[in-house]
Write a structure and sequence with these properties.
The protein is α/β, with parallel strands linked by helices and 675 residues long. It is built from 23 helices and 25 strands. It is 50% helix and 19% strand. Strands 17, 18, 19, 20, 21, 22, 23, 24 and 25 form a 9-stranded mixed β-sheet that branches. Strands 1, 2, 3, 4, 5, 11 and 12 form a 7-stranded mixed β-sheet that branches.
Amino acid sequence: MAQDNRGRGLLRIGSITVAVFVLIAALFLSGVFETAERLLYDRRMFLTAPYQRPSEDIAVILIDQDSIDWGAGEFGWAWPWERRIYGDIVRFFQLGGAASVTFDMLYTETSVYGKADDQAFADACSEYGRVVLPVYFGETPQLPVEPIRSAVAAVGSINARQDSDGVVRRAVSYDIRDKQIYPSLVTALLETAGDDVSSLYAEPESGRLLRFQRDIGRYVPYSAAQILQSYYALLAGEEPLLEPEQFAGMYVLFGVYAPGLFDICTTPVSAVYPGVGVHVTQLDNVLQNAFLTQLPPVCELLLIFLGALLGCMPLCVAQMISLKKTGIIICAAVVLFIAAVFGAVSVYVFAQGIVLPAVTPLTALFAGFVCAAVVGYITEGRQRQYIKNAFRQYLSPAVIEQLIEHPEQLRLGGEKRHISIYFSDVQGFTSISERLEPDKLTALLNDYLSEMTDIILASGGTVDKYEGDAVIAFWSAPLEMPDHAARALEAAVACQERLAELRPRLESSAGGPFYMRIGLNTGDAVVGNMGSSKRFDYTMLGDSVNLAARLEGLNKQFGTYTMCSAASKNEAQQTGTKLCFRELARAAVVGKKEAVTVYEPMTGEMYEKKRNIIEVFEKALHLYYKGRISEALNLFEQIQNQDPPAQRYALKCQSLGCAIINDNSWQGIWVADSK
């Protein structure tokens, strides 16, 4: 009898293993597991990224918002910059003997400053002889304009290889168009630097899997302002901020990373990864031979078979020796342990550069266990309840139950809602990130973001996303709130108060000042699940959202840290907020044709403390609106040392240089010159 029982058990193990293998293998070959496999792939990339050291031969130069502000303030440079400025950047690296300089910027049209501007940039490129520019292949190739095209050493393709879910996981070293082979941007820059790139042209057309850093900050990027300041200091015979020699032999990649200007893409480590970061990653992988290797399909089939076998074997053995409830629980624990070990191994070998398939073997493992349990339930009778209870313990989590009950939540779509929107950003965060090691920067950000998030959530707000140091949130969605404007404004003021309490600690960690700018607006926006059919977020979009973002940046022009629109102020007052407001300006922000009146919200206590200054400011602002500039200037100058907005208006009045403006079109509108 024991031998018969053992024989039936072995037959059951073999039958279940083969059945599960055939089923999972068929699903695997049909692509059913592709989305889930990519999600686990992305998660492993995110977990292992901090342990991969970036190459020290790469220098990343970014035009960030600070660079744009510096150029405008120091030289009056409007955006876009004249192309001769990029020529100065090229000459700086020429002095240092960089291996090559690559711009991730398309110069497909003549400069808005004229052909002479193009020639100035072309001359610098020609003198250096190691400048590489991108070409984008759309319906027609988008090449640099002449004379720039003839002056650069090479052009490289920047056409991204996105998977079907829109995520960039691999890169190619060359592009084939009309039976012609074009090097990628990375291949072109390596070839320009004199490296042997023959092996790159032997790579498969599908490309190679990239190993990403957690963020581009791991390469300690330099700002364009730092490079230009150093170059101009050298020309003036002064001590430069950066010595050109420190870039000797380095591969320099130049990109744009200012709000509203930089191109972004989705990668396994971030949904908002800068486009230049993909080229940096590919170059890093080439230099360190750090590309990931994916196992061939036959290996995945072997793992599926092994998973099915290990999944069904423990329970079948338990049933063979007539173990009861305790044995079934032990078997479930064994399967979970096997799954945990396999998961740990897959993460470890991923860090070593080998991609093990994870979803299909684990699916086969659990499917084997499930099938063994079902067969045992049917054949053993009394074990049914044991197995049923065991499955309830780990296969029915609350979140999954909710999604099963309401699958419509997973569909794309949105609705128009009246909401209040919040944008915040840390002042000078680029400088902070350059000073800190990645682990210290992460700890600082987590500390700051946790405190701000707690306040937003406590007020009923919804955190849309984090973009580095920036927080984006909104109120009155998904649950409607009649007092959403008041909640948003009061949360913003509370965040500033809490930040003031935390500032000594944060500044100690940051090694410098730590302030936050906030912009708020209230209006209609589309809110809902947006993205692709396989990857989406609950988020918002619309003109009202853009205005809130602009107001956050507009704080810089007035020296303020919290700014709201008249719509937010009025609705908050209608619902009984106790906050006080002072009018700052009639502002025409970038992207808006009509001016909006903006205010600075504050607590009643703060308002009383600054009452005398605010009253003088309001009188001066009234005169400014009427065009009585000289009288307004006199009042602004009285308080400019105590009030940053007054100081900005004093400078504005001085620049107007007239006592009275009689032009009927004058309304005192402050035109924002940057985002």
